Fold:
Amino acid sequence: MKYMNKFPAKGKFDGFGGQFVPETLMPALEELKKAYLKLKKDKKFKRELNYYLREYAGRPTPLYYAKRLSSQVGLKVYLKREDLLLGGAHKINNTLGQTLLATHMGKTRLIAETGAGQHGVATATAAAMFGLKCDVYMGTVDMERQKLNVFRMRLLGARVIPVKSGSCTLKDAVNEALRDWTTNVRTTHYLLGSVVGPHPYPMIVRDFQRVIGKETREQILNAEKRLPDAIVACVGGGSNAIGIFYDFLDDPVEFYGIEAGGKGLKTGKHAAPLCDGSGGVLHGSYSVVMQDKFGQILPTHSIAAGLDYPGVGPEHAFMKFQGRIHYDSVTDDEAMNAFKLLSETEGILPALESAHAIAYLKKMPRKFKGKLIVVNLSGRGDKDVEVAAKAMGVKM
Amino acid sequence: MSRIAAKFEELRRRGEGALIAFVTAGDPKPVMTPKIVKTLSKHADIIELGIAFSDPIADGPTIQAAADRALRAGTTPSHVFAMIKKIRQTSNIPLVVLTYYNIVLKPSLETFMQKLATAGADGIIIPDLPLEEASETRKVARNHRVDLILLAAPTTALIRMKKICKASSGFVYLVSLLGVTGAREKLSDAIKHIIAKAKISSKGRIPLAVGFGISKPAHVREVIKCGANGAIVGSAFVKIIAKNLKDERKMLKELGKFGKILKSATKNQRD
Ligand SMILES: Cc1ncc(COP(=O)(O)O)c(C=O)c1O
Structure:
């Protein structure tokens, strides 16, 4: 089966996806889909977006051979350096794309949800550069653990709106953003930060993140004259993962999507719906979610705020059931160790989210020993220094 | 004829609009719901019972808080089915359940609708299930003689409105404003337009009820005058519950008093 350029048909990845939103938003989703499909073919739009990605955000990002890390883990590891982008994460690929799309649609205000604050920062950045108003919803628990990013967003001229409902984390921020969008749908574009939500978001965000995989393909062929044996990425909503995997889907490459195992899958205190969830509807699409037997969404836990979410993009659920992508998890502790490992061996502080992908290098199946592996280093870790210090029992 | 259809027919003959009262089942605790429904039933024509969901994206702070209280009190869908059964033993009032799609989907559409029908409910409203996703649910609901009530919004274009009016059963839920549930001071200007659009679309074949933001007798009067067949009031009732959590008698008294005023606003509209 070929996987690229086929889905979603009618907004669904073979049953996963769809549009489970209030009627008020349905015309807006249709408008968004039409505008996107038109602009996608527009050469001028493509040129404009590429210009900003290159001259403003810093693309292409390097594909770096991590020699000392490689010898530590017994693999040949390349890192795709999304951490070097403006704002410090892959999120800017999507926010520049969607902001440009929003201006073409005549929208004057952007709203976004954020967990780690990286998507909020990336949205605020794009909004500042294009001169749009920007409101970012963020759970109060996340505001506390990602204070640095809260202040960064404010410096960029965005309003950060604290969300005090439910578990006060990312899922509740999405709820609030959806409510805002329902109220202000005529003037506002909801800039969703991952491959989640109702169609066409999973498709749009994936397409804007595909640039990661396209570059990686060219770079690895240049450096090694061959494709990698496996690619590893962390999975929150799943945008950096699908972004780097997508252009290799029809090649003999294996993929590992790493979810947040929190305190361990058995404890229930995690954020790994692909590993330990079931089919359900959350935030507008049918995918896998963490839920109780009545369908109530469960609270999640992860040391990485950007992974602390009970759902995941519908295309990932599809890939899981197709067996095309492997999904696994690493715990908070394993991620913390990887955070230290990459800092000490390579002088690169990874985001705690990305540290989950690094941690998996030590858990890769044995058959990969000495093989060529690419890891998507989705973000940098400056924002996490305080959380890391706390986890290590260090007072700053 | 279904209980809902019969009720609208009866009201039409009397020249009245319907008062549809919403509360969240299990708020503030499961044992209260049958008492609250009994009180409201004295005035309201149709009762809407919310089954709480952890992530209610169509609801404002008032009903979010009610869902929180119900969930914290341990309310489950099974409790709500039991409440409906109990209410049905002594009352013939049309009962409509409102809940989000995941709650319906989790046990399976078939199981949920079967339990709902067996308990004695007449209809269901699922605010995050738009027309495009509703065909399977419609089929299963119809098999169990449960009315699947679809929603239309101020952003709904005329062609779409026609499809919604055709696919909906029981009545069509017209969302009065852009936004979430919650009592508002003033009615939205969109109301006249959406009712007019819906009237053209429905051609009188299905009743129209307006909800979201309606919280005063004047609002109810206005909605009925504009040609709607019913007014849905939720947050305003829920606020009375929230204000009197510690005083059950006062809560019921105030609910009754408010229900009575609202109901009288649905009458004598033939001027
Ligand atoms: C650096 C980084 N990586 C990964 C993620 C997770 O999102 P996704 O799975 O959509 O890439 C986040 C989210 O905030 C992030 O900041």
About this structure: Residues 248-264 of chain B form the longest helix (17 residues). DSSP finds twelve helices and nine strands in chain B. The interface with chain A takes residues 53-58, 60, 64, 71, 76-77, 100-107, 127-133, 150-157, 160, 164, 175, 178-180 of chain B (CB under 8 Å).
